[in-house]
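=== RUN LOG ===
request id: a7f3
mode: sequence -> structure
chains: 1
length: 256
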Amino acid sequence: MATSPFDLSGKVAVVTGGNGGIGLGMARGLAAAGAAVTIVGRNEAKSKAAADELTAAGGRAMAVTADVTSKDDVAGMVEATKRAFGSVDILVNNAGINIRKPPHVMALDEWHQVIETNLTSAVYAVQAVYPVMKAAGGGKIINIGSMMSIFGASFAPAYAASKGGIVQFTKSLACAWAPDNIQANVVLPGWIDTELTQDAREQVEGLHERVLARTPAARWGVPADLAGVAVFLASSASDFVTGTAIPIDGGYSVAG
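=== RESULT ===
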């Protein structure tokens, strides 16, 4: 019987910010498809709990404590993964933060904090995995954008800039590394029910109602909604897909 193009057996994935929300939703999908998964986060206990969950479900997983804004930490997460699992075939750059303030109120250090966490960290990570993937004959990079890669929001200037930047950065990766058989794509989550968006609903009046009113699916997304696209973009099923940005949003981005 032919192997499924979605089979990730023998592959190794690193998921930053993988201990909760969208990252954990993707990590669960990757592990269920057969990949060994390194969960990366700053909260050691939370990351270990996530890795233990994947292991208990029959997968192979471990936790690495790292700050993705530290180039040394990012290099360390790649080395730890290679030692444990032998390679890095899949990188999911999911770690991210938001500071919700209008542009005229946001302090410059807050701007830098968001940009460094959401965008510069991805530069560190792809530079760290590139030689590993090239030596192995290929790899998959999945960057996490946002609806804010498409739309503006008065309360998210730095976040929107970082997520717009990640889309254009990914297109550069796709062009530069296609000869090395490395595909790079972006996932644009819509309004997903996570700790980050739960905070947003507390801070932005009327957000919940506006999201439901605009989303054709008439619900918030859940982390499990991201599992399938993660497996697709991490597998041989997407070998001719690179430089794309895929909304996973229940139709939010196409609704009038």
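=== NOTES ===
The beta strands are 12-16, 36-41, 60-65, 90-93, 139-144, 182-189, 245-248.
The mean pLDDT is 96.
=== END ===
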